[in-house]
Amino acid sequence: MALDTAIVIDGKAVAARVRADVAAQVRGLASASWRTPGLATILIGDDPASAVYVAAKRRACAEVGIQSFHHALPGDVTRAEVLALVDRLNADADVSGILCQLPVPAHLDGAEITNRIAPDKDVDGLTTVSAGRLALGLPGLRPCTPAGVMVLLAEAGVELRGAVAVVLGRSNLFGKPMGQMLLAADATVIASHSRTVDLPSVCLQADVLIAAVGRPGMVTADWVKPGATVVDVGINRTGGGLVGDVDFDRVKHVAGAITPVPGGVGPMTIACLLRNTLLAAGADGVSRRSA
Ligand code: NAP
Fold first, then answer.
1. Is 180 in the active site?
2. 93: domain CATH number?
3. How many independent structural domains does the chain possess?
4. Which residue in 8, 101, 144, 255 is a FRET match for 211, CA 20 to 30 A apart?
């Protein structure tokens, strides 16, 4: 039986609240004469999309009062030069968080550069140590997009304890950490991927269905349990514009709540990057706290 229309979870509004909260905390630090949090960004080469992403992150920092330290390196920079820069930033007390925009040029190893970042400054939450902390349930900085999904679910009042959560996609960037965060919130988690047999039946079990596959409109209405919460992480550029992995127009008549694309998960990623930078600054005295 189809429900009327799902509640649309407004990621833009939630992200604005997270940013406002970060801004207020940064102002509070300034009045307490605490060091202003600082984010160092490393951009290697001249990939236009990467330049746009880094510019957006720097703008977002400026809006909430976080300092940004930008390092634009030429596309032919050597491995040793990049690693030496990361080492300098690791040792710089004004730098609370560091990110290296991926992908990097082919002669460099993005994983090696990421892993050189000190785990307590790893605001993207992508180092091996951060992944290990998450897997072991230890405090640490969490990857921004799944952290953003957790904030959206909390704001939408979605009960995770005991819920069946199906995560579609198992990337290191999103699917795996998402599954672990849901597990930590006491959901019963099913990780699914391209080798999963009968995906529609698996997805139909979900009280919370999170799609991150990069396939436009793959999740159709008949994959969704009536009343389920559907979170669409996909960002696919098509001739018809930006679309998610969920067939929003049909699924909204079955789901209880759903995130749109754009305006759902997307805005949460940068908001959580700002929040991670604040946490990494140790502003509240618990810098190792989980996000
Ligand atoms: P990814 O590394 O390409 O991983 C895609 C995952 O989807 C893989 O686990 C893959 O399975 C699975 N998959 C692909 N085709 C499938 C199919 N037909 N059936 C079942 N599973 C399938 O991608 P990602 O980095 O996780 O990103 C996924 C999507 O989220 C992309 O659209 C990306 O743009 C978006 N994204 C958005 C944000 C944001 O800020 N909103 C952040 C990150 C990602 P295998 O492992 O078996 O290959």
1. no
2. 3.40.50.10860
3. 2
4. 101
Q: State the Cα–Cα distance between residues 290 and 139, nearest whole angstrom.
A: 4
Let me know: does 171 contact 212? Beta carbons within 8 Å.
Answer: yes
Å from CA of 86 to ligand 1 middle: 28
Q: Identify the DSSP state of 94.
A: T
Among 25, 57, 232, 252, the active-site one is 57
Mutate to test the pocket of ligand 1, among 149, 176, 218, 235 (most ligand atoms within 8 A of CB): 235
| Catalytic residue flag (residue 57) | yes
In a domain, 69, yes or no: yes
227 vs 4: CA distance, rounded Å: 10
pLDDT at 35: 85
Domain span at residue 79?
33-118
Q: Which residues contact 36 (CB under 8 A, 6 or more apart)?
A: 26, 29, 30, 65, 66, 67
Does any domain span residue 213?
Answer: yes
Tens digits of per-residue pLDDT, 198-248?
999 999 999 999 999 999 999 999 999 999 999 999 999 999 899 999 999
Tokens of 150: 């957790």
Task: Identify the helix (H) or strand (E) that includes residue 13.
Answer: helix 11-31
Residues 6+ apart with CB under 8 A from 287: 120, 279, 280, 281
Residue 168 lies in a domain: yes
